[in-house]
Specification:
Blueprint (H helix, E strand, L loop, with lengths): L8 H11 L18 E7 L2 E9 L4 E3 L2 E2 H4 L3 H13 L6 E8 L3 H19 L4 H7 L29
Helix pairs in contact: 3-4
Amino acid sequence: MPNTEVRTLDDLGPLKGDAVAAPQARVYEQKLDAKGRAYATGKRKDAVARVWVKQGPGKITVNGKDHAAYFARPVLQMILKQPLVTAKREGQYDIICTVSGGGLSGQAGAVRHGISKALTRYEPELRGVLKKGGFLTRDARTVERKKYGKAKARRSFQFSKR
């Protein structure tokens, strides 16, 4: 037999460290504008939200109105505040949003996505908590387009034998 040298794993240890360096974990930095705000864009369905986050007493403004006046349904207000509750940052940041397109439900989801992204730009250490909660992932589900020869996207016209 040619060269049957028996080696242990301890003998291979020095080779492993030299050949392949361990991949570096990505370092996220705080990204603020000149006014000390973090900016992010959130999207959901056809709605797009532009969100600014800054230190403050916790006032949330959507399109110039208080969030409770803009999103009257309690479910939408809860969706809006989910990232802040999960990160335990309620009442610590002022949030200013402009949102357009879609309906109220899509707009609330877009603002939630934007708040989550802006929080990670203001406090990068919150990324793990928000990522685990699923707030940083863009929900790509949109309405399916209408097809020709159909009443809606998939619904056929009513069949009549006559």
